[in-house]
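Figure 3 (text version): structure tokens given as input.
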């Protein structure tokens, strides 16, 4: 185990202090910034805490502040992520609070997660906590398979899909056909030596039972796309050397979780055939709703960055006070998820993928999504939201998160069962869509075609160029919002 100073050994303690100038119960840590920096030379935990600040500039400013005669205090705020009365069995969040005197204080919120354990904690058996070496995707793939198994066996709402009943109209729509996509990529089972190839679903000997769909950012260039000229060649086989890393990673994930078919837009829609592109893009509802799982390349800015499959850095293991038994010691682990400095869901909501216009309908229509982020994997289905390390565990069926979900903040995807809330939901989707980016302006309507079909099927309303007949008058209203705080009078 890594050496830890006496202050860090107390992080797992429940002996909190309360003070009016600190927003929540805290544990006093190093007496100053200078002490924290010095301790970081020998205490790996202090070194990690230093790294949580926003770079060396922030540290330099605080050191200068301290050296100028002002007092600085380091206080560690502990926030349990799960059961607030059970620190032992749930990871807790660390928030560093740096306070200065002279009517000035520095307040940096940076998150790390500590699991204090006697090796019986519910998350300890997960590789991201228990492993003492970098974790490969071979170890992490089991988490995805377990999530899928639990969803298949216990989530009736997910099995029914998002459409459920026919909606307010009482009439089913062709948009929700159970027919698989026209084309899929066959990757085989766990056989990595098999050359992937494009297949026509109608020509397969057996019907397609499961496939995954990839949600990703193209970037400025795509090395290989499906065209009329190379269609025959790709039906014979796809040279993986021509594929970008995100596609190669998606094939690898499929094989690891045991799903033989994969749908990727650029390889399953003929890109230089306008009629094929129009026909297939109009089937987005079926493609994503029928996918057994959607693979979301959340952290990748383009198709070359991959799914960040790892290896993921192991947790730091250190000796600490037992949170339950007075005088006892325990082994504790700490992780600092990459890019997570303020709120857990920022990793997904502020990811490059979430800036893409097409992705809005892809995520809303998917019944199960795995977000591949730099720090870890995140799971979203109609029934729950989960994270690989156990710090996210939200039941969206029995809580209000159903209407305002963790990874779909304000998208309200299940509120189409009433005319009023349905109209509000559509307006929320459009407002969210307007904040996202499209490579081609001409994609604006196609990128909403899936949601349009889904809304029509659920409500029976008639679309009118982005608006709806039942609420046309209210949807024609608009307002101007000024976000600048320069002049409160405006």
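Below: residues designed for each position.
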């Amino acid at each position: 185990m890594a050496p830890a100073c006496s202050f860090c050994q107390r992080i797992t303690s429940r002996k909190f202090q309360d003070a009016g100038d600190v927003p929540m119960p805290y544990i006093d840590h190093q007496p100053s910034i200078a002490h924290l920096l010095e301790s970081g030379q020998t205490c790996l935990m202090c070194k990690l805490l230093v790294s949580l600040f926003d770079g060396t500039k922030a540290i330099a400013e605080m050191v200068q502040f301290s050296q100028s005669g002002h007092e600085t205090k380091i206080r560690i705020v502990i926030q349990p992520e799960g059961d607030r009365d059970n620190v032992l069995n749930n990871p807790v969040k660390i928030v560093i609070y740096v306070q200065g005197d002279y009517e000035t204080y520095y307040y940096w919120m940076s998150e790390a997660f500590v699991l204090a354990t006697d090796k019986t904690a519910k998350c300890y058996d997960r590789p991201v906590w228990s492993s003492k070496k970098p974790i490969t995707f071979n170890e992490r793939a089991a988490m995805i398979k377990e999530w899928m198994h639990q969803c298949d066996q216990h989530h009736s709402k997910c099995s029914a899909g998002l459409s459920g009943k026919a909606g307010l109209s009482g009439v089913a729509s062709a948009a929700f056909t159970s027919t698989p996509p026209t084309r899929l990529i066959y990757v085989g089972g766990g056989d990595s030596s098999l050359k992937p190839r494009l297949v026509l679903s109608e020509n397969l000997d057996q019907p397609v039972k499961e496939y995954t769909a990839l949600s990703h950012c193209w970037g400025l260039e795509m090395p290989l796309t499906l065209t009329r000229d190379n269609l025959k060649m790709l039906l014979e086989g796809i040279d993986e050397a021509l594929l970008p890393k995100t596609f190669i990673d998606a094939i690898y994930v499929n094989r690891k979780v045991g799903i033989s078919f994969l749908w990727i837009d650029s390889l399953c829609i003929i890109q230089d055939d306008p009629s094929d592109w129009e026909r297939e893009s109009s089937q987005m509802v079926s493609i994503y709703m029928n996918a057994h799982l959607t693979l979301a390349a959340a952290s990748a800015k383009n198709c070359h960055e991959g799914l960040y499959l790892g290896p993921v850095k192991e947790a730091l293991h250190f000796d600490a006070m037992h949170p339950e038994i007075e005088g006892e010691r325990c082994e504790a682990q700490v992780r600092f998820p990459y890019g997570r400095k303020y709120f857990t869901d920022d990793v997904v909501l502020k990811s490059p993928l979430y800036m893409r216009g097409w992705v809005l309908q892809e995520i809303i229509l998917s019944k199960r999504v795995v977000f591949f982020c730099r720090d870890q994997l995140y799971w979203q289905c109609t029934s729950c939201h989960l994270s690989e390390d156990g710090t996210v565990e939200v039941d969206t069926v029995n809580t209000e998160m159903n209407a305002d979900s963790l990874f779909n903040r304000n998208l309200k995807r299940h509120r189409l069962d009433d005319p009023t809330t349905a109209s509000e939901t559509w307006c929320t989707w459009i407002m969210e869509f307007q904040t996202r980016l499209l490579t081609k302006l001409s994609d604006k309507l196609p990128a909403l075609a899936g949601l349009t079909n889904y809304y029509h099927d659920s409500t029976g309303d008639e679309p009118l160029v982005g608006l709806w007949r039942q609420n046309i008058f209210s949807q024609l209203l608009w307002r101007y919002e000024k976000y600048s705080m320069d002049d409160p009078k405006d």
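The chain has a mean pLDDT of 79.
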